Amino acid sequence: MLKIDQLFAQIEDKGILKGLSLDVKPGEVHAIMGPNGAGKSTLGNVLSGRDGYEVTSGSASLDGKDLLAMEIEERSHAGLFLAFQYPVEIPGVSNLEFLKTAIEAHCQAKGVEPPSSAEFLKQARQACKQVNLPQEFLKRGVNEGFSGGEKKRNEMLQMMLLQPKLCILDETDSGLDIDALQTVAKGVNDMRSPERSFVIITHYQRLLDYIKPDFVHVLSDGQIVRSGDASLALELEKLGYGWLNAEESA
Amino acid sequence: MSELLTKAIAKSEQVNNYLHPVRDQARSRLAASSWPNRKTEAWRYTPLRALEQSWQPSVPSTLSDEALARLDLPQLGSLDLIWLDGHLQAVEGQLPEGLSLSRFSDLSSDHRQSLMQQLGQTKPEHHLFGNINDAMLEDGLWIDVAPNAQITQPIRLVFAATQAMTEVQSRVLVTLGDNAVAHIVEHHLGEVRQWQNQVFELSLGNHARLDHQALYAQQQECLFIGGWHCALGQSAELNSLVLAQGSQLKRINFDVLHRHQHASANLDQMYLLAGKDLFDLHSCIEHEQANGQTNQRVRGLVADQARAVFNGRIHIHQDAQKTAAALNTRTLLLSSQAEVDAKPELEIYADDVRCAHGATVSQLDDQSLNYLRSRGVAKHQAQAMLSLGFMQELVADLKHESARNWLQSYLKQAFWALQE
């Protein structure tokens, strides 16, 4: 599904990712943990195609297609979805209009007929219910005046409507109370399927109590320094990230 | 002196009715005025060449039922007053209680006297086109809302241009008594070559509230110069939203006077310009007394080779302590040949005030663009959505649902037309 090979990326002249490799197969859930500044968010941003990041070498592909050669929107059409750590507020553009335009763009890319307005509205309302977001939020500006938790629920809502193949959650748990955390986790768990993969970027182990990963990777200074199963997350939680550095320098 | 000015003065001498003191005084002010040129600060960016044509007076006419139906906006549920080329059509339907509409020419002698006291109360004497309007003043409409009357039905004033190569002078006086509430919607439209010179004078009593929306939708050929002058009583409230498209010449002087304490003015002003259109908004907010509030937001989208001029003056007088005034203007230029000349002007003579002004000519926000694109929306479409959203944001704040829906869909339509 997702194959990253020896990826190097920088912002301006500062190297952030330094030879990162990762192989995610269909249906798998991978957690990427690591200390602040390790390059966790950069990974999500580089994969989604955000401006300002320069890939200097290495490759990343989704279902064999070169992700790095695609425009931002093409990556979305190809099935990649990044749930942002800080979803941006866009007053003046209604959530509903935004979602509808996004879905129509996806349908157009796939060459299928977009859902009728009524059908779309039904889907959007249903998704609202699933993420526990009142329907009025559909009429409001995109994320406008939403609380931290509401913004993250809105990310989940978009994910449900777009049905991506690969979902990257960038510190989706940060700033969430326990209820919102459970809603987000439920959203992810409901969407788990043999054809869909998840990469969950997180600083804390907490989210992984609710979403059980198949693999846990530790990212440090732009590289994956350790991989293991779910028990690695617990180990990290207990010992902190300092333990890694100590072990490396020993 | 321009030919136009000479003609105005000559014409004002031929009219004969009780409004002559207004005309006489204006005539003498005009005699001492000079025609603006490029060195005249108030007209520096707005050439008046297009006015130098031979205009004919418009004549009273009526529209076919079909044409009238096209002016109809049933969703607004408004009481409609329709001016065809400056001539007010008979008003149909029953007026809500507390509302009175009088043509200047129909007033009884008592009312004539009070009209004469009201005229010129809010309109500054130095406005050249205001003086021309005065000098040509033959008739007008007085909309009066009685004290304590709460008129929730929108009163829609439709100004339609149909006769080409004509000149239209129009005049409206709006007075709201103490504690009165009214909702006025101005709807300007027309596609023919016409010169319109319009003056609105408005006066709000103590604790009165006026909700106002104005859509200046006259197209390219229509030349418009308007003065909109509103004085606020104590604790009065003005909530106004202006949406303008440009034309070859379109200029509005928008003045708000805080004549008493604790008044508030919420002003949202937007323009959407394309082709070679021009829109010039000169606003002037006078805080004469203490504890007043003004919140003015101006947004513009300028495409093609269009040009926007904005001059936003806020003048806080010495006695206007504790004034809170904010003026923010943002313009998005959609082409490299589009132009905006924006000048906020703060003049403050009181020492205990909160004032803020900001003017930006901006590009679309990269993060927002990235966000939309990351959900699959194509770049050009995301840009369009954000540009439109930039304007819709102000309309979305409108309390009146029917007016909001109307303006939102108008804005959307105008925006997509501009994208083609």
Description of the molecule:
The complex is a heterodimer of chains A (250) and B (420). Chain A has 8 helices and 12 strands. By secondary structure, chain A is of the alpha/beta class. In chain B, helix 2 crosses helix 5. In chain B, 48% of the residues are buried. In chain B, strand 2 and strand 3 (87-88) form a beta hairpin. In chain B, strands 1, 4, 5, 7, 9, 11, 13, 15, 17 and 19 form a 10-stranded mixed beta sheet that branches. A 10-stranded mixed beta sheet of chain B has the order 3-2-6-8-10-12-14-16-18-20, with helices on one face. The termini of chain B are far apart. Chain B is built from 8 helices and 20 strands. The A-B interface holds A 48-51, 71-73, 75-77, 82, 84, 87-88, 90-93, 97-98, 101-102, 105-106, 109, 141-142, 158, 162 and B 365-368, 370-379, 381-382, 385-386, 388-393, 396.
Question: What's this entry about, in short?
Answer:
Chain A has helices at residues 40-48, 72-77, 95-110, 117-131, 148-162, 178-191, 230-239, 242-249, and strands at residues 2-11, 14-24, 29-33, 53-62, 65-66, 80-83, 90-94, 141-142, 166-170, 197-202, 215-220, 223-228.
Features:
A: 250 residues, alpha/beta, 6-stranded mixed sheet, 4-stranded antiparallel sheet, 8 helices, 37% helix, globular, B: 420 residues, 10-stranded mixed sheet, 20 strands, 22% helix, 40% strand
* Topology of chain B as a string of helices (H) and strands (E): HHEHEEEHHEEEEEEEEEEEEEEEEHHH
Tell me the number of strands of chain A.
Answer: 12
Question: How would you sum up the global shape of chain B?
Answer: globular
Distance between the termini of chain A: 36 Å
Mean pLDDT of chain A: 92
Please bin the fraction of helical residues of chain A: 25-40%
Structural class by helix and strand composition of chain B: alpha/beta
